[in-house]
Structure formats: structure tokens, C-alpha cells
Amino acid sequence: MAEDNQSSKTDRLSRHGLVMALWAPAIFVAAVLFHAGYLYAANWWFVGAFTALVLAFCAHIIVNVVSKTGFTEGEVALGSVILVCLTVVYLITILTAPNASVERLIIPVGLGLGALVVFVAVSMVISFGPRRAFEKFDIIRDNNLRKASHLTHRGGRR
Predict the structure, then answer these.
(1) What pTM, to 2 d.p., does this model score?
(2) What is the C-alpha to C-alpha distance for residues 155 and 158, in angstroms, rounded to an integer?
(3) Please, which residues have CB within 8 angstroms of residue 92's CB and are 6 or more apart in sequence?
(4) DSSP letters for the chain
(5) Are 19 and 74 in contact (CB under 8 A)?
(6) CA–CA separation, 24 vs 22, rounded Å?
(7) Chain segment 54-71, per-residue pLDDT in tens
């Protein structure tokens, strides 16, 4: 039976604790600012909420760089599910809410969600380069087992 490396477990746990220590207060601040934006009908509250989320994302990227890691599969999955759920809730709100609420929420929240998507895409391009960033979404090429897919001039990356 192989020995587990305790230092790597401790490093992973320390990284996880640091990431949670960054995101927990940022999400709380963003939720409070979203609530204030909804109550007081001022777009600056929404800008502050999305700024808190973007700053937490930047801090998470810095933690990844310092610890020489990337986003874990769980972090990517959680972030993707949360972003998709927020977008669906936003679209359902636009379709079902009274006109006064929709007029108040459509521009600031829509722009904020769009800015988050653009920010994630730009960070992927910066981290991986344009080609590798878009290859992250290319599942067809990963399942192509033909010999030609291994050739460099054909775009093979195996």
C-alpha cells in the first residue's frame, strides 16, 4: 500500500481554506449589495455587488498562481452551475416579474452577468492562450480517435 503524501494533503487543505476565506465574505457582501440595489433602485449597488464577485475571482486566480495550481474540477463545475442557475433565474424573472421590477433589474443585472462571462473568458485566454482556452470546450476533438487527429499540422494535441 502506497503512503499518502501528508504535505500535499496539507497544501490542498490550506489552499481550500484560503479560497473559502476569500469567497465566503465576498458572496455575503455581494448578496447585501444586491439586496440594497433592489430596495433602493440604484444601479451603483449592483455595480458594487458584481465588483465584489470579480475581486473574489481575481483573488482566487492569485491564490492559484501562488500555489502553482489551477481551478479544480469541482470549482469549475460549481462556478458553471451557479452562473447557469443565476442566468436562468434572471431570464425567468424577466418573463414573470412585474414591469417595474423588470425595468429596474434588466440593465444592471444583465450587464453584470455578461461582464462576469466576459471576465471568465478573458482570464481563460490570458491563462491558457487563445487556442488552448477554446480547446477546453472542444469535446469532439477529444473523442476523435483517428490517426490524423494526432498530427500537429492537423490540430492534434496528443
Answers:
(1) 0.76
(2) 9
(3) none
(4) -PPP-HHHHHHHHHHHHHHHHHHHHHHHHHHHHHHHHHHHT-HHHHHHHHHHHHHHHHHHHHHHHHTT----HHHHHHHHHHHHHHHHHHHHHHHHS-HHHHHHHHHHHHHHHHHHHHHHHHHHHHHH-HHHHHHTT-HHHHT---GGGG-GGGT---
(5) no
(6) 6
(7) 999 999 999 998 988 888
